Amino acid sequence: IASNYSGALNNNSPTFSRDGTSDIWYYEAIQAIPKRTGNYTFKSYSAIDSYGYLYANPFDPLNIASNLLASSDDDETGIDDQFSMSYPLEAGANYNLIFTTFDRSLTGRFFIVVSGPARVILRSMNTTLKQSSTTTSTTVASRCKYYRLKISACFILRVLRKSGAKTYLKYPHCGLWYTFFSLAAAL
User: What is the pTM of this model?
Assistant: First the structure.
């Protein structure tokens, strides 16, 4: 039985360092929950050279060896630039599939097929900041922008960039809503 997932890496995708340097790789974290215990195969399809990681929950982008179950650069033939990996999964357990690229800083669309004895629930674990409203504060004479971030995993690391600098924010909570404020000088 096959389960499918489509996604895309872009300049707003989260990043991590795959080799411990300052180089970045875009990635998409995909939650995988199998309906039945058994051996499952994860295969990518994309125009970009892909790299896949399978983790026991959770995935830590600052320590990519933690909870790692399997990884794959190319399929078993070694001539296809798509990952293919098999691993025995337990029914109802949470796994994280990480889709990334072999070369750094690449973007593009991708498609993943998971085949095994039963359906696998696949959903994105990536988070995005969404602007929900803008107001003007007369007491501090500045414009406030309000952002909401939905926490959909027990561990989230989001990389925010401002003028080339990176700030890493870590949220160790589940299923909560946070409101963030961004203050800028009034024009």
Answer: 0.68
